[in-house]
Amino acid sequence: MNDKFFRLPLEKQQRIINAAYKVFSENSYKKAPMSEIATEGCVSKALLFHYFTNKKELYMYLWANAIEMTREAIIEYKTLETDDFFEMLKRSLLSKCSLMRDYPHLYVFCLRAYYETDPEIQNSIQENYNDVSKVSEMTVFEKIDISKFRKDIDIKTMYAEIFYAVDGYMLKKYRSNCIVPDEIEKEIIVLIDFWKKVYMQEV
Amino acid sequence: MNDKFFRLPLEKQQRIINAAYKVFSENSYKKAPMSEIATEGCVSKALLFHYFTNKKELYMYLWANAIEMTREAIIEYKTLETDDFFEMLKRSLLSKCSLMRDYPHLYVFCLRAYYETDPEIQNSIQENYNDVSKVSEMTVFEKIDISKFRKDIDIKTMYAEIFYAVDGYMLKKYRSNCIVPDEIEKEIIVLIDFWKKVYMQEV
DNA sequence: GTTTGGATTAACTGAAACGGTTAATAGGAG
DNA sequence: CTCCTATTAACCGTTTCAGTTAATCCAAAC
User: Which of A13, A25, A129, A180 has the largest CB neighbor count within 10 A?
Assistant: First the structure.
C-alpha cells in the first residue's frame, strides 16, 4: 500500500476507510465492488487503486486496522483492570461504542470478516483473530470475581447468552440502518443494568 | 410462476427452494445470482427460469412461502394456546426448529429479507410482514400471565433481550455454517430453561 | 419400435459490472 | 510559467449477469 495515504487529511482517510467498511460489511469479499467503495467514499476508483494496490490489500488493511483499533480502545477503557464482570462488560462495550463514533461499520465488518470463506482471505483472518479473542476470553474468566453472581445459574451459559444478545442487538441496529452511537450507548447501559440486576446475588 | 413446479417430486421442490433460500440469505437481492441458485440446487439455470418467470418472482415466492409456513408451524405447535410466557417461547422456537429441518436457511433469509433495500423488493416485503409480526407480538402481551415474573424486572426489556439473544445465536450458527437442528433444539431448550430460572419468581 | 409430450439442459445473447490501468487534468507552491 | 502532487475520466479485457432458444432426454402410449 501507498504510504501517502496517511498524509491525506484525517477526514478523508476516514471517509474512504468507512466506505470500505460499509461495503465489505454488506457484501461478501468477492461481491463487494471497489467501484461501490469509491462512490460511497466520494472519490474515484482510480484513487482507491492509487493508495491500495488491489482489493485484497485494502481488505487486509481494514482487518489489521480493526484489530489494532479494538485493542487500543480496550486498553484505553481499562477494560481488563477490574474484577467485576459487569463493569468489565460495560467498559468493553463502551469502548466499542467509542470506535463506532469514528467507524460505524467496524463492528459488523469484523463479525462478517471472521466468517469470510473466500480462499484469498480466509487463512489470513481467523488465526490472527483467535490470538486476540481467545486470549482475552481466558483473561476474562481468570480475572472476574464469580462470588458476586447468583449461585444457581451457570456462568458459561450466562456469558454466552449475553454475547448472543449483544451481537443480535448490534445486527438489528445495523440492518435497520440506524447506527447512532449516543442512542446505542444508552441502550447498552440499560441492558447492562438489566443483566446486573438479574444475575448478581442480592445483598 | 409455473404451476408445474408443484408437480415435481417434493424432494426436488425442496432442493431448489433451499438453494434459493441459501443464496438469498448470503447475498443481497441484487447480488444473488440465479446461476448460483441453479448450481446449488443441482439443476440448470434454464429450468429455474422455466418454473419461475424471473428472479423477482422467485424471491417473492420464497417470501410468501416463508410467511405461510411460519404461520402454519406456529399454529401446529399451539404456540398461542398458553398463558405461560416461557412455554410460549419454547413452542415458538421449537416450531422454528421444525421448519429448519426442511428449510435450514429460512430463518436467516427472513432476517435479511425484512431489511432488503432493493426498490424492486422493499415495498412488497415490510408491510406484509408487519401484519404478521406486529399482530402476533400484541397477542403475546395480551395473553401472557405476567404475575409469574420477578417483580423487579422490566418485562419489555426482558422480551427484547431474549429476542436479541435468539437472533444473535441463530446468526452465529448460520455464519459458522453448522445448522444442525437437533443440536440447535437442545441448545435452545438450555437457553429457555436458563431464562426461566432467571426471570421467574421463585416460589 | 415408433410416436408423443413434458422435463431438462447446453449453448447462446446482449448488456452490464468487474478489477485494474493509463494518460490526462486540476490546482496550489515556488 | 514551471513543477509537483493529488485526482480522475476514460478505457481495457474479462467475467458475470438475467433471460432465451433450440435441442435432447426419457418414459409412457400406441
Answer: A25
C-beta separation of B96 from B107 below 8 A: yes
Q: What is the CATH number of domain B3-199?
A: 1.10.357.10
Chain-chain contact of B197 with A153 (C-beta, under 8 angstroms): yes
Secondary structure element (H or E) that encloses residue B135, with its range: helix B119-143
Q: Which of A192, A64, A85 is nearest to A132 (CA)?
A: A64
Distance CA A107, CA A96 (A): 8
Pick the closest to residue B16 from B105, B97, B100, B121 (CA basis).
B105
pLDDT at A202: 76
Mean pLDDT along residues A34-60: 97
Residue-wise pLDDT for B111-123, tens only, equals 899 889 998 898 8
Residue with cell 498524509: A7
b/e map A111-123, b = 16+ CB within 10 Å: bbbbbbeeeebee
> Domain map of chain A by residue range?
3-199
A194 touches B at CB < 8 Å:
yes
**Protein CA A104 to sugar C1' C29 (Å):** 37
Q: Categorize the per-residue pLDDT at A201 as very low, low, confident or very high, splitting at 50, 70 and 90.
A: confident
- How do residues A168-182 score in pLDDT, each as one tens digit? 999 889 888 889 999
Q: What is the CA radius of gyration of chain B?
A: 19
Question: Which secondary-structure segment (H or E) carries A198?
Answer: helix A181-199
d(CA A22, CA B78): 42
Considering only CB atoms, B171 lies closest to which of A31, A154, A167, namely: A167
